[in-house]
Amino acid sequence: MSRRASLSFLRLLYNLRWLAVVGQALTVAVVVGPMHIPLQATPLWMGIAALALFNLYVTSRIRANSVDSVSDGEVCVHILVDIAALTWMVAFSGAMENPFASLFLIPIAVAILALPLRLMSLTALASGAGYFISTLFGRELPPVAGLLGGTFGLHKLGMLANFVVSAAVILFFFTRMTAAWRRSELEVAQLREQFARNEGIIALATHAASVAHELNTPLGTLTFMVDDLLREARTPAEQQEFATLKALLEICRDRVRQLAAPAASDSGNGPREQVNLDTVIQQWQLVRPTIELHRTGSIAGFEKVDPAVGHLLQALLNNAADAGEQAGVARVDLHLSSDEGGLRGEIRDYGVGFDKARPPLPAALYRTSKAGGLGIGLALSHATVERLGGALSMQATDGRGVRVEFSLPAVIT
Q1: Residue closest to 323 by CA, chosen among 309, 65, 315
Q2: Which SS3 state, helix, strand or coil, does residue 296 take?
Q3: Beta strands 342-349; 331-339: pairing state
Q4: Is pLDDT at 260 greater than 80 in this prediction?
Q5: For every residue of 184-227, which 3-state class applies, written as one string?
Q6: Which of 49, 172, 180, 203 is most buried (CB neighbours < 10 A)?
Q7: DSSP letters spanning 350-387
Q8: Are 166 and 106 in contact (CB under 8 A)?
């Protein structure tokens, strides 16, 4: 059982223990009061007080800063304290004749779900020992005449109350534990999917670095050739065409250089050079000149950002542009804004949207519904936002297309 699960279980025991204290106090008050059953009230009130004092200690333990260090052994000790208190209460209220003696089974059921085998066995032995001690050394229930049909009638009423209490405790406890277990299973599944995606991204990054090394030389050669063609151009149209081609080659070479930037930074060769978001958008428009970009908003203070933010924006813009082109609408809406909380962006395409029964997030690597797509854009975008501590969401628009929203904290600058 993990420490987080142990802490959750400790809090659950804490709440159940307060219910037990209140229930036992009311029961003792009614039995020795209006019902006038001759029990020794002092030992019973002492047991209830001791259990309440222990729970006050648990209150301080839960609120303490060291609560993260809770272990399975500590949880087991808490259950043993509950067994000891139950042993005391049963021993002074009828021993084995007490209809609530079967409550010794509840700590065993609880331990089966919450503790490892060794501590679970210890709990079972303690419950058995508590039942044996309360039966062997406890005080029998004194005879009760006339009340609810005598002693046996009172015993039957107690058995009914015991069933109700046991059912309520088991239902409450097992419902909470089942919910916690399902949450843990969901978290494990999400972590497993995230790990698989990150493994794929690492493999993709390794391959990209190799390809970047191979592309660097031919891109440099092409740049020199275009420079010669630009100098020899005879008409303004040729000059414009070769200038555009040179700009595209420069963008390609910048992408190749940026592939090595994270490795250089991680190796201690200096911080990563930040990029200008306006420049990133201009370069994207140069690569996708057929797309009509409608931009709104202001990013004052966020002009220079981590290169990963530039990659994120380009990937989302490319996805939106591809979706719009497939639907015959070559348009993308971009809204960027910033404040002291960070950078926020909204990108809308005019494509056919997505199936609500199969939402695109959380994104999986190499899964795509786009014809000819690689299935890496959305997955890389999602991973980038997670790494930067932000959030990414997608929803269908009122008309056609999809709206993608992301928010990034101020620490990205």
Answers
A1: 315
A2: strand
A3: antiparallel
A4: no
A5: HHHHHHHHHHHHHHHHHHHHHHHHHHHHHHHHHHHHHHHHHHHH
A6: 180
A7: -S----TTS-S-S--TT---STT--S-HHHHHHHHHHH
A8: yes
**CATH classification (class only), 275-412:** alpha beta
- Side chain identity at residue 183, one-letter code: R
Handedness of CA 284, 289, 291, 295 (dihedral sign): positive
Identity of the amino acid at 145? A
For 315-351, how does the pLDDT look when each residue is reduced to its tens digit (9 = 90+)?
A: 889 888 888 888 888 899 999 988 887 888 999 988 8
* Residue whose tokens read 């009914």: 160
Angle, alpha carbons 19-25-27 (nearest 5°): 100
The torsion of the CA quartet 305, 390, 198, 8, rounded to 10 degrees, works out to: 150
Q: Are 403 and 347 in contact (CB under 8 A)?
A: yes
Q: What contacts 370, CB < 8 A, 6 or more positions away? A: 319, 322, 323, 326
Smallest CA-to-CA distance from 316 within 236, 224, 381, 242 is with: 381
- Rounded Cα distance between 343 and 407, Å, is 6
CB atoms within 10 A of CB 137: 10
